[in-house]
UniProtKB/TrEMBL annotation:
Example of a GO MF term: helicase activity
Annotated ranges, domain DNA2/NAM7 helicase-like C-terminal: 161-311
Protein name (record): DNA2/NAM7 helicase-like C-terminal domain-containing protein
Domain DNA2/NAM7 helicase helicase: 1-49
Annotated coiled-coil segments of the chain: none
InterPro entries named among the record's database cross-references: DNA2/NAM7-like, DNA2/NAM7-like_C, DNA2/NAM7_AAA_11, P-loop_NTPase, SF1_C_Upf1
Amino acid sequence: MIHGPPGTGKTTVIAAAVTSLHLADHERSVWIAAQSNVAVKNIAEKLCDVGFHDFKLLVSKDFHFDWHEHLYGDILQANFIRSDNFNKDIVGAARQLLDARVILCTLTMLSNPSIAAYTRIAPVHTVMFDEASQIEVGDYIPVIHRFSSTLRKFVFIGDNKQHRLPCVIGDFISQNVYHGQLTTCHNITDRKACRFIDVKGGNEVKQGHSWVNRGEAMIVCRLARLYEDRNKSYRIITPYDAQRTAIEVGLKNASLRWANRVFNVDSFQGNESDHIIVSVVRSRNIGFLQNERRTNVMLTRCKQSMIICTSRAFMSSAQASRTLIGRLAASLGPGAWIEGRNVLNGNLS
């Protein structure tokens, strides 16, 4: 187990350990996994920084193509295997691995049957888990069960203290997701670090296989204007691609920065920003909000503040009030809510 707060060199230690293990035994397979694609990419870059290039990076097509192709530099481009190019036969998989015995992927990918050919060529002997404190205990079980015949060693790297989130959010997440085991270490203690915007008249509308809420999109674009006028660094997160597109169009029409500004939840996992704006979208049915793990990702990206755009009436409903975001609203109380019309008039107080 490797323990340490951010900035203490945990990723550097991973790179050094991998290099040492590889030098000691070229045939020994080392798999490195993390909860987020971004964390995996960061480890790959650190390996390159120390001159170690004999690894492969297994990446999902959706993550790489839809959003993050630009994150992978020329060196990483030569090292990754995208999910739509996965080989199911041993010969093809071996040709792709090129004798590499250090494999990087997300924990979800490691549990995916589609990588079976690669795990036969590079058996899962040693697994290093980065950001281990962000992984639910139950998420390790499929890996342990699937690779019980080859597993020799687990290495957990992480920190039981969270340093990103303001206290009001971090403490709530600790109690409601991590059973009080995650300690918040942050200098922002103001409860106004998390607020809700009551978007009256904002309704969820089905659009293809996704959902959009025009009322929320309008409020989000107004917030973006206020943030830019105040030179605040911010990002916008929404669970639905149709809403992401609607917000991007609104930002363009308002002559605001829109590129690399609006994300769906999965594409922003592992990232952070000083200020986060969340567009919930749903106003009648909880939809995405019933997935507590992904909602947790959405609510834990800010370093200074988070504003959540939704309907107060919906958050108070029987089904929404039981969700993670509904419980957050209840924990903050009535004082956390701002009227949407006030935001449209430029007032955030």
